Amino acid sequence: MALAITLGDPAGIGAEIVLKALAHFPPEALGQFFISGSRSLLEDTYGWLSQRGQAVVHPALLQVWDHPLISNVRPGYPSSATGAMSFAYLETAIAAAKTGTVAGIVTAPISKALWHAAGYDYSGQTEVLACHTGGSEVGMLFLGRSPQTHWVLTTLLATTHIPLSQVPHHLTPALLTQKLELLVSFLQHHRGLAQPRIAVAGLNPHSGEQGHLGREEVDWLIPWLTRAQQQYPHVEIVGPVPPDTLWIGAAHAWWGTPSQHPSYDAYLALYHDQGLIPVKMLAFHDAVNTTIGLPFIRTSPDHGTAFDIAGQGIADPRSLLAAIHWAQELTTTGKIGFPAHTCLRGV
Ligand SMILES: NC(=O)C1=CN([C@@H]2O[C@H](COP(=O)(O)OP(=O)(O)OC[C@H]3O[C@@H](n4cnc5c(N)ncnc54)[C@H](O)[C@@H]3O)[C@@H](O)[C@H]2O)C=CC1
Ligand SMILES: NCC(=O)COP(=O)(O)O
């Protein structure tokens, strides 16, 4: 099935990692990809990368949905114009996915601050995807397959791009129920896990120490877990696990080292950095971000625009390559991207 790949912010490392990642595919396989970006950006990037002897695909081999650049772009010097370009790339890819031209989209990183500078009031690509597809019930899920053991670290964030101070207000039993539904559907339909084991992190140090270090666990999280377990008798739901120890077993499963700490099929983290610190420590170049709950597949590298290294030729394409491979895998494991009862409501 065809995939669209966006170039992300033109002043970031997007074009570089796309050209490097696609060099891993034989020329005859490139026909399945449509690049939503700027052809001149690909050509410039190809020019300076190939001069340095880097393995990159020639842009002439690529099908490009061309968005002519609206201003000169210098790697590492983003602006509201580059923010606007990255938004346009994404919109074209989403439109293609909605009409079925492609089965999924793989997005290179954008800068949220520059979207705001360009007048687009979204806190990330995930939120644009949710809005364009008519529903807000999506999940930000990170997947990383260990190169050593092939164990898959699967982490869903209950809350995403909000200030830390607002996390306790956003976390509610209803929100967690919604996220758990998405996660269970994903594990069953896309990962083939009929009876998954899911760990839910606590919010406070030591999961609140029986209310002495924070009351969220005793006031509603533990009662919610009891109800969730009754609602999903085929799923083992463990928690709230003190967040400082929850990922020890994951690290051992990732490296293949023996441990008495359990590992789980999936982790539900309550806020952005709680989930992403372990993901990026273990799997920075292997993990990918996927939006679940959409009627099509969307994956992205786990990293950002890396403006600090743009134009230097040192950007690592592995996370983007993993995002492409995961998109290919997920389009074949899910019949229509996601089961209708969770994703098609409102679309
Ligand atoms: N999917 C997306 O669109 C994402 C976008 N972002 C955005 O990216 C911007 C920059 O975010 P930061 O927190 O600075 O994170 P970042 O991931 O861009 O950079 C963090 C560090 O990792 C390095 N790095 C990142 N990707 C790399 C790669 N492929 N190869 C080698 N080194 C790499 C960077 O040079 C930097 O030192 C922000 O505006 C953020 O919102 C961040 C994460 C995901
Ligand atoms: N840290 C994850 C992240 O920033 C993902 O952003 P986006 O894919 O929603 O743009």
From TrEMBL:
Keyword Cytoplasm part of the UniProt annotation: yes
Cofactor binding note: Binds 1 divalent metal cation per subunit.
Compartment(s) of residence: Cytoplasm
InterPro entries, A to Z: PdxA (IPR037510), PdxA_fam (IPR005255)
Keyword Endoplasmic reticulum among record annotations: no
Known cofactor(s): a divalent metal cation
Pfam families the record matches: PdxA
Domain of life of the organism encoding this protein: Bacteria
EC number(s) from the headed UniProt entry: 1.1.1.262
Coiled coil: none
UniProt enzyme class: oxidoreductase
Pathway note: Cofactor biosynthesis; pyridoxine 5'-phosphate biosynthesis; pyridoxine 5'-phosphate from D-erythrose 4-phosphate: step 4/5
NCBIfam families xref list: pdxA, PRK02746.1
Entry's family note: Belongs to the PdxA family. PdxA2 subfamily.
Subunit structure: Homodimer.
Note: The active site is located at the dimer interface.
Record-given protein name: 4-hydroxythreonine-4-phosphate dehydrogenase
Organism this protein belongs to: Parathermosynechococcus lividus PCC 6715
